[in-house]
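Sample entry (122 residues):
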Amino acid sequence: MRGSGFGTKGVDRTEPRTLSMKDWIEECFDRFGRSKEYPEDVVKFRCPVCGTVQTKEDFVPFFDKEIELLGVFGLSCIGRWSEEKGCDYAGGGLFKLNPVSVVLENGRIVDVFEFAEAEKEV
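Predicted structure, serialized as C-alpha cells:
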C-alpha cells in the first residue's frame, strides 16, 4: 500500500542548503557531466521523504507536454502519479521538505530535491 511516505525508510536527512542557480547548475554538470545536450535527460533526484531515485523518464508516461513534466521533476515525488514507486510528497505543499533552495536570477527561490548519485561509467 502506498502512503505519504512520512516516517518511512530512505528519508533524505540532508541538511538544508541554499545555492545560486549558477552553482546549482555547476553541481549538476559536475555530477552528471557536461557533454549532454539535454542534462535533464540524465539527472536523477532523490525524494526527501521516501528516498526514491527518479529520472525524467519516470515522469514521461504521465504528462502530455514536456513543459508540464519539467514543472514537477525534482520538486515532487513520482509517486504522486505512479502507484508502482515513490510516495505522494509534493514540494509545493504544506510541508516544505525539499532540502535545496535554488536562488534564481530574478531572486525567486525554488526548493528542490537533492541530486541522487550519478552512475559511474565503466
